[in-house]
Amino acid sequence: MKNTIEKYNGKLYTLKEYFPVILLFIFLVGFVIYSILKKGNYSDVYLSSEFDEKIIDVYEEKGDVYLLLTNKNNRYKLENSRNYEYKPVFLSKFLKENDRVVKNQCSDTIYIERGLKKYHFLIGSKHYNNKEKSKEFIHKYNSERTIMDEKNDCE
Predict the structure, then answer these.
(1) What is the pLDDT of residues 66-117, one digit of tens each?
(2) Helix, strand, coil content of the chain in percent (nearest 5)
(3) Residues 31, 25 contacting (CB under 8 angstroms)
(4) Tell me, what's the pLDDT at 113?
(5) How many CA atoms lie within 13 A of 40 on its CB side?
(6) Can you tell me the distance from the alpha carbon of 97 to that of 47, in angstroms, rounded to the nearest whole number?
(7) Cβ contacts of residue 25 below 8 Å, gap of 6+?
(8) Does the global pTM surpass 0.90?
(9) Are 38 and 139 in contact, with CB atoms under 8 Å apart?
(10) Alpha helix (H) ranges present in the chain?
(11) 132 contacts 86 by C-beta, under 8 angstroms
(12) Is omega for the bond preceding 20 within 30 degrees of 0, making it cis?
């Protein structure tokens, strides 16, 4: 008896004909497992959070930046930010593996050291150094960021 599957109309299909569908299913299951493992358990960054380490991995999902730092227990999730003085302007696109990231306690700024150069981003700021917006608008927007309100645990 052959390895065949009989369909309702009487036509016989071999397992070889189902191979692409089986392969696609295995790929999708593998991708879901990989995504779950990569995302892992990341801590939100609060105003009181503090770290000074090198980046092992960085990725962006749904507007948040996920950082895996050299101490593999340090996994952080923070709001994506923009600084219009740099190219690329988005923090998630700007960060690279082996960059040193520093966040001081009770500070809303991420400092990045790459080689001898130093950069900075305000966490959650989408208009920092944007020449097209007024200073009053930027100041008002920056004071309403999540890290300054909901995630502000500094006194």
Answers:
(1) 888 887 677 888 888 999 999 999 999 999 999 999 999 988 899 999 999 9
(2) 25, 30, 40
(3) no
(4) 95
(5) 16
(6) 24
(7) none
(8) no
(9) no
(10) 15-39, 91-94, 135-143
(11) no
(12) no
